[in-house]
Amino acid sequence: MKYRSFITVLSSACIAGVLAPGAFAQSPSSLYSWDGAVDIDAWVKNFGAGGTSATLDNNTAGKLTIIETSGTAGGSQAFSDGANRVRELPSAASGGLDLTGLTSLEWIFGHNGSAPVNVQFFVQASTGFNYVALGPDLAIAPGISTYTVPLTGLTPDQLVYIRTLGINVRDHAAQGNLTWTIENVSSGGTPLSARDLITHNTGTPEGGLQGAIANFDLAAIQGNNGGQNQSGLSHNASGSGSLQWTDLGGSNGAAVSWGNGTAWNGNTFNNRTTDLSNYVKMIVRMSATDASGGGGTLGVGGFFQKNNFAFEGAGTANLTIDGQFHDLEFSLIGLSNMSVVDLTGINLFSHAQNLVINVDNVRFEMAPVPEPASMAVFGLGALALLRRRQKQS
Fold first, then answer.
1. Distance CA 300, CA 64 (A)
2. Domains assigned to the chain
3. Over the stretch 234-260, which tens digit does the pLDDT of each residue have?
4. How many other CB atoms are found less than 10 A from the CB of residue 284?
5. Global confidence as pTM
6. What pLDDT does residue 218 have?
7. CB-based contacts of 129: which residues, under 8 Å, 6+ apart?
8. H or E segment to which residue 14 belongs
């Protein structure tokens, strides 16, 4: 990456002051609420002690009900969402849940017992499906209450790819079989103000390819074997590193895409989905070089495939063909289902000459926060307007 990589965090107060209700969505959100059509949203008994069993239903709107039916009454068992379910809505996506930048999960739930029951909260995360406990067990009291558990123990690769989230109910034989009610599971924390999804820095996955694949118009990539794969793509180690390919002239340019920033490993299931609902623009830092010394401009289109690969464009930008890196901006405002992005991509327009393309960075940013001085001027202007109206009345 040719400029300093960073992920910054805005305070909740700043966001609240700048983004009015109905503004671009934030990443912290409800993951499951069961308040739509009758549907348990792929929740299951994940594992449990011998002789344990349960039934799950959503017969009451806004509630997932878990009724223990164990022969070994009160035995320990765990419940979670399905391994291929990302979140309640949008519902068509499959893969991992992306909680990058967030710090907690909030559960609103409880049971009908007579005394507290210890529960371990957990996720199964990364492509290794690693089981990670979210803090120590909590004593869950009878009735419905809110419990917050930390995500701080997860690595970046785990946080970006959560396959299941759930509760492991400890043994409570003294109380027998219980009924559990979950009303909501949501993510929490201050949203990231900027995210470098892709850097292609030396040391990033797959020798710097970082999950990039040729997506369509494959014949434009010199050396591609005709498949949606990494053939024809290479890592340019110059500077901090970039993705490089030769885009052949005379026809449509290639479309190249990325997942969540981790390794492709032969299948996009390994690096989808990405939650980009927090951002208003994408900035792609890239260059185009004509080996024969020609110039001009190259049209570049941004696109996303979301919620089971539904395609949506993100506008176009022109790249100067001069061998230098330029920042191309694409607006995300108005795009749908950005919490479940399968692939993020760019599509080159047709060009007459062969071009060596380098992509250095793919960054996402929120709307800029006004400087304090600007906010003060805005406040004084509003006060003056208010006084004027009062005087006129």
1. 46
2. 28-188 (2.60.120.260), 194-365 (2.60.120.260)
3. 999 999 999 999 999 998 999 999 999
4. 22
5. 0.86
6. 98
7. 83, 163
8. helix 12-18
